[in-house]
Amino acid sequence: MTAPAKFRFVSTDRRVREDRRFVVGKGRFAADIMPPGVKHVALVTSPHPHARIRSIDKRAALAMPGVHYVLDGAELAAATLPLAAGLDTPNVPRRPLAVDVARYAGEWVAAVVADSRALAEDAAEAVAVDYEPLPFVLDGEEAYRPGSPLVHAAHGSNVLLDRTFVWGEVEKDFAACPHRLKHRVTWGRSATVPIETFGVTASWDPWREILDIWASIQMPKYPDQTAVALKLPASSVRVHYDVDVGGSYGVKRGIKHTVLVGHLARRLGMPVRLVEDRLENMRGGDMHGPERNFDVEVAFDDAGVIHAMKMRALDNVGAYAGRSPFQLGKPVGAIVGPYRIRSVQYQAIAVVTNKTVQEAVRAFGQSPTNYAIERTIDEVANRLGLDRLEVRRRNLIRREEFPYLIPSGSTYDSGDYHTVIEKVLQRADYAALVAERDRLRAQGMLAGIGIAACLEPSGGNSSFEPLLNPKNETTTWMDSCRISVDLGGSITATMHTSSSGQGHETLVGTVVGEVLEIDPDRVRVVRADSLNALPSNSPVGSRMAIMLGGAAFHAAQKLKGKLVAIAAHDLNVPAERLTYREGNVIDSSAPERKRSWAELVAIAHRHIHRLPPGMEPGLSVAHIMPVPTGGTLPTPDGRVQMYPCYAFEFHLMLVAIDPDLGKPEIRRYVVGHDCGTVINPKIVRGMTMGGIAHGIGAALYEEFAYSGDGLLMAQTFMDYLLPSAHEVPPVEIVHHATPSPHTVFGQKGSGESGYLGAPAAVASAVNDALRPLGIVVNSLPIKMARLGDLIAQARRGS
Amino acid sequence: MKPAPFEYSRARSVEEACALLAADDGARLIAGGQTLVPLMAMRLARPTRLVDIARIPELAYVRDVHVDDPQLHGREEASGEGKAAAVAIGATTKQAVVEHDALVRAKVPLLAKAMPLVGHDATRARGTIGGSLANGDSAAEIVLTAVTLGATLTWRVDGRTEQAEASQFFLGPMVTALPPAACLLEARFPVWSEPRVGTGFHEVNERHGDFAFAAAAAQIAVDGDGRCTRAALGIGAATAVPLRLDGVAKALQGTRCEESLVRRLVAEALAEVETMADLHASAEYRRRAAITLAVRAVSDAHRTARRA
Amino acid sequence: MNVELKKVELKVNGATHVVEVEPRTSLLDCLRDRLLLTGAHAGCEHGVCGACTVLLDGVAVRSCLMFAVQADGYAITTIEGLSPGPGELSPVQDAFCEAHGMQCGYCTPAMILTAHALLARNPSPTRAQIIEAISGNICRCTGYAQIVEAIALAADRMRGQNLPPDRS
User: Fold this and answer.
1) Which domains, and CATH codes, for chain C?
2) Which terminus of chain C has a smaller tally of CB atoms within 10 A, N or C?
3) B307 touching A, CB under 8 A?
4) pTM exceeds 0.95
């Protein structure tokens, strides 16, 4: 349902209240939290991609100053349960420290606890581990083939998942089409790499039997999984959500760090903390993103309309798996992108290799999938000699077709893709852009126009879990908000998760203020801890505007309802005659009869005799909200409503490439963004710009490259190249809003915006630039020197 | 990433610094630390003692000098007394100081052109000229400039003052002629006295401020008709040690430095040279990029010389 | 190795502190762990990301690349030294709030200090100059757009051309 079109506070240009503490350096980040007597952890890591651990000699380390303990994998495994896996893979256990076998270079083998981080690092160097190197495999396709070295012998193969879905009459549709196109498109291994590494401090109170945890966390079910692994009841684990997280974009799921530190805190009876240094983070923090080959085949007609698609997606998840293989499942919810493709065959394959473990990365597999779809549609246009925009127009779902059911069972809630595109073309002056491209080409540059039309599914059902693991029936997620009005009449709202820069406190204040018709700045927003939290699932899946916003909305409505009910009873008039306005409740037919906010608060808290019979005293309400459209299991053939809301983005860019140096430069960039109603424009714009920067990084600069010896070569920021302000061009964002029918204000998520389309757009532009030379580049990242080599090769050949 | 433990001494004089170095094999000098400290954080460098020379007053300066040294490479025009002109920069002079120095801008324009490309503002605020030179990274702009102009490096060791011209100083990847217990004192950059001098400096890196994959530095003097009377051309980052293309420089004299000529000459000069390959770029890429950048650097130098 | 601790006098935000540290203690760690000035952040500890930026005599430097024992004799400014008073914001800090030039806040103190240093030496920077000035500070949240706008807004305001709107 949508609220009235004119809002008081929603969609207005409000400051983000969290900013105040950040600009004065009073953010409270994980590394800022130092309980008295806290000890520090440093890791001993495997130098081999695959090796048996024959022995670990701790004596020298233990003799060093300030060292309290050296923990190894065997001891930890005896005291804990394995970390939760998403797929049904009991023979692929995952633990914080390697047990018997180290399976990737950088894997954590032992943990040293000392009085300072420096002393712990000194001692970590002195731990002597005897390894017996084993054969290893790095390439995903090679790991998939029988006969490759096994990463987990007990599992019998390197395949964690290999499932094919067929939705619609794929073979029939293929047979009926005059044209086919098949290619492989590769998304290289990168990640969103926050500037803050993962940090966690744990402190065990044996008298209260509570393990307190402060962590830079962004993870659903974190307290629960921590408790299970540590063999504690969840009511003995108190995660403090009021820790500011220095960026996450999916990856800060430090469950192995937490179990490690939690165990040590209990074992040693002192608070213990692990703040990854950058080397530990890059190699062994297990925060890499998808590394995926897409083999895409489409069947299309003479007009370039694609009727059917076959997609094989093989992802190299690294040496173990937590949730990351689900990144093959979430894209099922938008498997055809914004296009009217009738039938789809989708094969999802997850393999293990001797590389660092993957974690959830922003959009959970959707950006690589969007890239594969967009590369394909560009090639369809090229094959037929048709304009790439025109082919998209012919394939895009039309405004009047919403809500639109796609073959894999998700219904897209709303959209108007053609209008967004037109707006962008107008803003960019598309004809002038093309002319500029041609002018650059005439000057001897390579130049290309990049186009990408991509979806951002938002709202977060968990249906990819039962989709890929029938034993796991987690269907959906909820989120919550509690609002209390105190004796003095001030308002406090509580949220029940941590945040990593999304401005959730501002979101809640704005929504509550909107509903209660009061200045949002009057709404105090605080965070619970996991013991006094209502159910929440953490900001993932672009869900919080929808879910936290929705929960806050409904809680505020409940509060309003309660105030009206109190006034009705006290005034002795039917509630229908009353109007709530800006905190006061007024008899519409006799406006002099009213109850003010202060009076209502007094009745609720003190004058209980004036409360309606049966009503609870006080003014505390809560709302726990399930995901709209959620809560269903997939059908046997794998159809399910994945996420409720679908935002749309259209990227248009002009790229120039220096042909001699291969250096690409984005000369113009315009993005159309439709995420429904925008609750806070500054926040949403910031998200989109940040997502674009991540996308440019993934497309052109960032790669976790491995040597043939299985070592991560890009392990510091000297070799893993993060875009600076020079590498991110100015971007104009054009807005459009097709509200979602499922949400309280019509809002859709936007936490992953920009990242979902930028890599596809960059790839499109580079390929357009290279077309005159006959070069096609179907893998990311497109690194400058490699591009230079390709160009030189092509020029020599011509 | 905390460094391994070390002792710290602050030297008040060059003699003290050298003595501390001589007394301990594992001792190393630190001035700006912008290169050394990251290596220590990664425990790739593990000095037992850091000898801090950053505050030795006599090591930080930018001066006009006239040198009575016939061995100085290049044809610095003699002043009236038969001495050659140069700008001497003390080893611990901060890069940011050199970047904004009026004398450098006027007399060593190639260095002035290179400085903004060195790292970032915050690293130039602490990093020193000597630190970059002593580190000897072929991708360093200051190193390339020194090689291109034939700068003279002077150091103190064991009570002696020694020096070498740049081509004898940079010996291998991060390997210089500096003996183990030496303290670099100064880099002296020759000043060209020709009236019409222009410069060009081009590098290619993935991101602004990164170490370059290839770089080219050119300084050109022209006569009134725009013909080259003198040239210096250096290639950095493509090979383990920067190359000074003397043959190309000589061949450019008398010409107008036409692009096709420069391209052919540089390509020939690099034909037998083995360029470096690594994670970031192939050997062929570096070779091609070096040629392209050399052409652009010479073109800039020629054009700015004509306007001078 | 049993290293001799060194006594260092550090002038931070106008106050003098005497600390005893191992030589290997970085200025960053000293500020954070000893002086409890946790506004400077560790992002990489090898001098690339800039999250550790502080000002030395008004010039932005990477505090992870300095040892505390090197830092005596300078006027060190951290983010904690910029607010005019409790609950108050400097014009640059306020401009960052107005433009929402941040999200997670982790790189923000460094960005603000860098902006201060820039505006002190160049009160009217062009967009290109702002970008060059912050190019040594990596942000993973914002894509830089609103940071650049914040700095431009701060410059405008400090020049008196664009006074803060009345917020009543």
Assistant:
1) 6-81 (3.10.20.30), 91-158 (1.10.150.120)
2) C
3) no
4) yes
